[in-house]
Design goal:
547 residues; six-stranded antiparallel sheet; rod-shaped
Length: 547
């Protein structure tokens, strides 16, 4: 309302301020011939009516926009005079007309201009209005007359001051609101600029990014994400309808159940990375590595999630081609190696009449052929895409006991003590064959990298959710930067190469794959000369791998 009034022209504003008093005076003038005809012979009363009419016309006719801002206050000042004429011209029939002075008093006080003058007029004006009717009674003034003479101006002064204070407070609040409004406008403008910058950055990235609320409604998606949605959505379906998107497991043909899809997992509050899925149908089908992070409010409640989709089709296809090549080459090596070993075994069975040097040389050929065959087996296993696990309820303590028994002979040759600290039973949800393979590999490595003797300790502990296995040795150890790379294929630490310890750098890579297929993980902590510690974590309860 105040904004509409402010947008009006100066003449209209002045007329609206004068309008309440003018309406009352107009009604009074219309009722005069019928209610108080004697007042038509009062010059003061008629002059008051005429002055009110002239003032109302002046509101429209005066070019206020060309005058000083405070010029229009002449209207309420003259209103005091007009009210005085009406009141004194109508006395004693209508002595209550003096109350009309409240309108110019309010106008003067609310204007906020000519502060001292307005306050003085608010008291002096009503006093002057009351004096003419009180002057004839001066010799015989009663207490009631004095009270009316003094009290009425004081009441008008109080009204003026109250309105003045209220107006000042309102203006202060108005300025504060204007400042807040300006600040909000600046913040809104800055927010819009940041939003534009964010959208520009998101659209410039080569990964798909989507933000959803806690029930899965899409809040934000960049251009790349919209292209992913079109790829994953069948024709005739809205791309934002996530439930209809074509999302497959790593075999590219098995549809992922709803609870295994990246968006659903993210909405459920999961945080994950490098979760590989295939989206869309051939020939546009693409491999996508996804990652998700939950969105939380200040109270820690889940409000949504952000999911990132990264196209890794080329990498996956290149790895598949590499694995296929290694598998094929390994297969081609296996047959001639088996033939060599078979024939050497036959020759060595009839070695009684052969020279000792020949037997020794054939033994060297046999050992190196067996080593080469073991290397080929590791290559084949590492390259195999079918390194599947079949987890079930398994007693880990039994696997540890079996692994120690298998490694006992190797440990005795290396003068290494094997120590086990594993509670029995210790149940985990694991594939006993694969975890046994991982344990054998880690224990064998621990012995192999302790060439000067020492101790290999296998300890374990469990909770309701996880089982943790720790294989610790007191061997040569390795640098921390080597420990960070030890699970990479074909990687061998510098200390191992310097000590001429045989190996292909595949065993730990295979072990890591086995643990990941179980939904677990493996880590390495090592320092040169202080041994190495490998920590395996396995699920204690059922885990259904999404591979």
């Amino acid at each position: 309302m105040a904004l509409k009034f402010k947008n009006l022209g100066p003449r209209t504003q002045v007329a609206l301020c004068q309008l309440p008093l003018s309406l009352i005076v107009t009604v009074l003038g219309v009722m005069t011939p019928f209610g108080w005809p004697s007042l038509l012979s009062s010059p003061l009363y008629l002059a008051g009516l005429a002055l009110h009419a002239a003032l109302f016309l002046a509101c429209f006719l005066t070019p206020w926009e060309r005058l000083r801002q405070s010029a229009y206050l002449i209207i309420p000042v003259l209103d005091l005079l007009a009210v005085g004429l009406l009141r004194n011209g109508a006395a004693p029939l209508l002595p209550g007309l003096a109350i009309l002075v409240v309108f110019p008093v309010i106008w003067l006080a609310a204007s906020g201009m000519l502060v001292r003058t307005s306050v003085v007029l608010s008291a002096v004006g009503p006093l002057l209005i009351m004096v003419p009717s009180t002057a004839p009674k001066l010799p015989n003034l009663t207490a009631a007359d004095v009270t009316v003479l003094v009290l009425f101006p004081l009441v008008m002064l109080a009204v003026s001051l109250a309105i003045r204070f209220a107006s000042v407070n309102m203006r202060v609040q108005h300025r504060e609101l204007q400042a807040m409004g300006q600040e909000l406008r600046e913040l809104l403008a800055a927010s819009r600029e940041r939003e534009k910058l964010l959208v520009t950055i998101l659209d410039a990235t080569d990964v798909g990014i989507i933000a959803v609320d806690s029930i899965g409604n899409q809040l934000l998606a960049n251009n790349m994400m919209r292209r992913w949605q079109q790829t994953a959505t069948p024709a005739g379906v809205v791309p934002a309808d996530h439930s209809q998107q074509r999302v497959f497991a790593q075999d590219k043909v098995t549809p992922l159940p709803p609870d295994k899809r990246p968006l659903r997992r993210a909405i459920e509050g999961e945080s994950f990375a490098d979760y590989l899925v295939w989206i869309g149908d051939a020939p546009q089908q693409r491999a996508v590595s996804t990652a998700a992070r939950p969105l939380m409010d200040d109270a820690g409640r889940l409000t949504g999630a952000v999911v990132v989709y990264n196209d890794v089709t080329g990498l996956v296809e290149a790895m598949a081609a590499n694995e296929e090549l290694v598998a094929n080459v390994s297969h081609e090596f296996r047959s001639p190696l088996n033939s060599i070993l078979g024939n050497i075994d036959l020759v060595l069975e009839d070695s009684d009449g052969m020279p000792a040097l020949t037997v020794r040389r054939l033994g060297v050929v046999q050992r190196n052929s067996e080593r080469l065959l073991a290397l080929v087996s590791d290559l084949t296993l590492e390259a195999s895409a079918a390194l599947n696990v079949h987890p079930k309820r398994t007693d880990i303590s039994g696997l540890v006991e079996t692994s120690i028994g298998s490694a006992q002979a190797q440990a005795e040759r290396a003068d290494v003590a094997l120590v086990a600290d594993v509670p029995s039973p210790l149940w985990a949800y694991a594939d006993p064959l694969r975890i046994g393979q991982a344990l054998d590999n880690l224990v064998s490595n621990a012995i192999k990298y302790s060439p000067d003797g020492g101790t290999v300790t296998i300890s374990a502990a469990g909770t309701e959710d996880w089982v943790k296995l720790v294989i610790q040795d007191t061997g040569m150890g390795m640098a921390p930067e080597d420990a960070a790379k030890v699970f990479s294929r074909f990687f061998r630490a510098e200390s191992a190469r310097d000590a001429a310890i045989p190996g292909a750098g595949l065993g730990l890579a295979i072990t890591k794959t086995i643990l990941e297929r179980h939904g677990g993980k493996i880590s390495c902590d090592s320092k040169p000369g202080m041994g190495s510690t490998f920590t395996l974590t396995l699920p204690a309860e059922g885990y259904s791998p999404s591979f």
